[in-house]
Amino acid sequence: MDLPFAENYRIKMVEPIYRSTRKEREEWIKQADYNLFNLPSEHVFIDLLTDSGTGAMSDRQWGALMTGDESYAGSSSYFNLKKQVKEIFGFDHFLPVHQGRAAENVLFSVLVKKGDVVPGNSHFDTTKGHIEFRKAKAIDCSVDEAFDTNGNHPFKGNIDLEKLSQVLESYPHEQVPMIIVTLTCNSSGGQPVSLANLREVRQLADRYEIPVIFDSARFAENAWFIQNREPGYQNKTIREIVREMYELADGMTMSSKKDGIVNIGGILAMRHEDWFQQASVYNIMYEGFNTYGGMAGRDMNALAVGLDEVTSADYLENRIRQVHYLGNQLINMGIPVQNPLGGHAVFVDAKRFLTHVPKEQFIAQTLAIELYLEAGVRGVEVGTLLADRDPVTKENRYPKLEFLRLAIPRRTYTNNHMDVVAAGLKNIFDRRESITSGFQITQEAPIMRHFTVKLKPQ
């Protein structure tokens, strides 16, 4: 018989986690004002809030930590990381930052001004937040297939060329500082972008002389999907595909806490020296000197190793297999999820799951709270709370998709933990008809409210 699949690593250290009771969780979520971000981590059994900075580092990465150079200027750790950025992505100009939103803050301080528009594929929360904070507008040009969770389009992260053309035709060149392509597209369900689409976006951008920026948090997962789904790439390595992808970009922002497989860190890289000179000013003001930028030398060392490891096909197969293990269980149970399954998380379609909860009562947040109460599992809402209010009308924005995102940390949980998640959701699904009300806001911030919002049952 054929040997079954097994991970190509073994576990060297374990961290105890507390298995709480439902009665405890009912009190804890109330104390947290029904905001899962407010829960202390020890009150969570399986934490799928995010895959950002929550993964397990390898022995090579821990070894690299010990040899970090903490020199303020010109550390060897900086040059280790700069070398990897050049080899993997091809960019000459590089600035380390403390995480992805810091890269956005520095770059957008250079490029984005009041009244601008920034088209892209379903900008994520911090990206949209940094754009709107500058009184500019993010315009979603995702393909329509992204919003049909039943459909099986292999590249739901793609940009719709017709929608993008309309934006570029409708606004003066000076009002469109960049096109942002998110790899993979988190907000649409961790969905990949094809290389064919990246080329078409590049060609359209060149016609209008607009720069293209890649939000690169999950670049390697995107490359894995290209290798496995796009004709002509099955025999190319992940690194070859990544280089081909990034030849089409003018610059990149990256939260290294995802596909860098580290707990903190970020990357801002670009082709244009004038951008680099301007960005350096903001980097020094906001982050730190250009050769550390808010990162310790040991963290830069660990990131340099992480970028090497994440571009390994073996690592990516382990990573994505576990996401699909959970997703396929839910599909087999009849639980509605975004299809096809993405690379870093399973996105449960809350609208199709809780059909009796009004949209004004935050459907996906309601489902997230139910899962925590049922099984001690912390997921996150990607829906109306995250969408914030319209900056002009101040009314809630109701996105086409209401997701409960179950983001799986890298190399952290076993498939037994995934079984618990699946069973918890199945229990809720079996009683879903009895869930008819959600929550209302008692306090919220003016932007990116989902992190600190306070709620109460409706």
TrEMBL record:
<keyword id="KW-0456">Lyase</keyword>
<feature type="domain" description="Aromatic amino acid beta-eliminating lyase/threonine aldolase">
    <location>
        <begin position="47"/>
        <end position="423"/>
    </location>
</feature>
<dbReference type="InterPro" id="IPR015422">
    <property type="entry name" value="PyrdxlP-dep_Trfase_small"/>
</dbReference>
<protein>
    <submittedName>
        <fullName>Tryptophanase</fullName>
    </submittedName>
</protein>
<dbReference type="GO" id="GO:0009072">
    <property type="term" value="P:aromatic amino acid metabolic process"/>
</dbReference>
<dbReference type="GO" id="GO:0016830">
    <property type="term" value="F:carbon-carbon lyase activity"/>
</dbReference>
<feature type="modified residue" description="N6-(pyridoxal phosphate)lysine">
    <location>
        <position position="258"/>
    </location>
</feature>
<dbReference type="Pfam" id="PF01212">
    <property type="entry name" value="Beta_elim_lyase"/>
</dbReference>
<dbReference type="InterPro" id="IPR015424">
    <property type="entry name" value="PyrdxlP-dep_Trfase"/>
</dbReference>
<dbReference type="InterPro" id="IPR011166">
    <property type="entry name" value="Beta-eliminating_lyase"/>
</dbReference>
<dbReference type="InterPro" id="IPR001597">
    <property type="entry name" value="ArAA_b-elim_lyase/Thr_aldolase"/>
</dbReference>
<dbReference type="InterPro" id="IPR015421">
    <property type="entry name" value="PyrdxlP-dep_Trfase_major"/>
</dbReference>
<keyword id="KW-0663">Pyridoxal phosphate</keyword>
<comment type="similarity">
    <text>Belongs to the beta-eliminating lyase family.</text>
</comment>
